[in-house]
Amino acid sequence: MAGYIENKDAVLKRLARVEGQVRGLQRMVDAETYCIDVLTQISAATKALQAVALELLEDHLSHCVADATREGGTEADAKVKEASDAIARLVRS
Amino acid sequence: MAGYIENKDAVLKRLARVEGQVRGLQRMVDAETYCIDVLTQISAATKALQAVALELLEDHLSHCVADATREGGTEADAKVKEASDAIARLVRS
Amino acid sequence: MAGYIENKDAVLKRLARVEGQVRGLQRMVDAETYCIDVLTQISAATKALQAVALELLEDHLSHCVADATREGGTEADAKVKEASDAIARLVRS
Amino acid sequence: MAGYIENKDAVLKRLARVEGQVRGLQRMVDAETYCIDVLTQISAATKALQAVALELLEDHLSHCVADATREGGTEADAKVKEASDAIARLVRS
Fold it and tell me: Which residue from A56, B88, D28, A48 is spatially nearest to C53, judged by alpha carbons?
């Protein structure tokens, strides 16, 4: 089950906004907008994407990982390892 | 003038692909896909956006900044400062 | 209590290595080494520091946050929020 | 020649401060300081290292790359490519 279910609508709205930013980037490039202005918008879109990731991660820790921890056993360790790997990919992207 | 003009079509194609990734993310969230799988796709989309930024930056350095340098004067320093600020925003996003 | 206690020696060893890398950077700059070579070493030291952070974070999730979750109550939510804020700082640094 | 020569003392001072931060981190871990406080300090040290990198990069662009551009030829393109690769390593670290 997805840990973000309670925030599903909010997450969808944020992603729709990122999609709008990426479409805006295409219009900027098509209009041959000055490089630095395009780069500023790419930084904004990247930050917006990372913010969605951070929200999903918090939901995941407080629901999926927490549930596994309460049930105990090796599943709990596996969930922490899996979350840590996702955090590592996020830090490096 | 935009430094990426020679690569304009390639840049537009990359951005269209990122838009597709972000639409795919919305479908995943709508289908309540497991958090970690959504996070993996967000990392991929973030990397793709950063790759576009790095390409624009290289084009910017080799055209806009190089042109200003050849003309000399205070404009050259201003261009390097502007590019450095854009790099800083990219590193921190 | 620190979640990394079982790995304390390994963490200290990694940090000592990062300290060595930063001292090496000072020697390189003092010897006026070519900029790009210094930058390559800064990237390596940054990655090493981030790797320590990711290890501490995994230990923190599997011990401190997991313990709070098992005890339940508002403390568990506070721990997840605190860890999420630390992850956000890491992603943005 | 190193592009940061005029700022050499300032760069060395910043690196000495980062070395102090990393030694402080070892003391914190040795004293078994709470994970989150150690992580906050790692984020600070990482940011300080990235700030040195951004300064070196700006010096490199305004001296080494600018000089190559003024001389022209294939050397100028090679310098921009080399700087772009260094920026990519920085963004991903």
Answer: D28
Cβ(B49)–Cβ(A42) below 8 Å: yes
Please give the full DSSP string across D37-82, using - where no structure is assigned: HHHHHHHHHHHHHHHHHHHHHHHHIIIIIHHHHHH-SHHHHHHHHH
Contact of D36 with chain A, judged by CB distance below 8 Å, is answered with no
Residues sharing a CB contact under 8 Å with residue B29, sequence separation 6 or more, in sequence order: A2, A4, A8, A11, A12, A15, B38
CB-nearest to B84 from D57, D80, D91 is: D57
Q: How far is A75 from chain B (nearest CA, A)?
A: 15
pLDDT tens per residue across span B27-86: 999 999 999 999 999 999 999 999 999 999 999 999 999 999 999 888 899 999 999 999
Question: Which residues contact residue C82 at a Cβ distance below 8 angstroms, ignoring those fewer than 6 apart?
Answer: D36
- D70 lies within 8 A of chain A by CB: no
In whole angstroms, what is the distance from residue B49 CA to residue B57 CA? 12
On whether the CB atoms of residues D50 and D89 are closer than 8 A, the answer is no
CB atoms within 10 A of CB D72: 11
> Cα–Cα distance between B29 and B23 in angstroms, integer?
10
Residue A48, token pair as written in the block? 């917006």
> Strand, coil or helix: what is C4?
coil
pTM, 2 dp: 0.94
| Residues recorded for chain B | 93
**Coil, strand or helix: which one is C22?**
helix
ipTM: 0.95
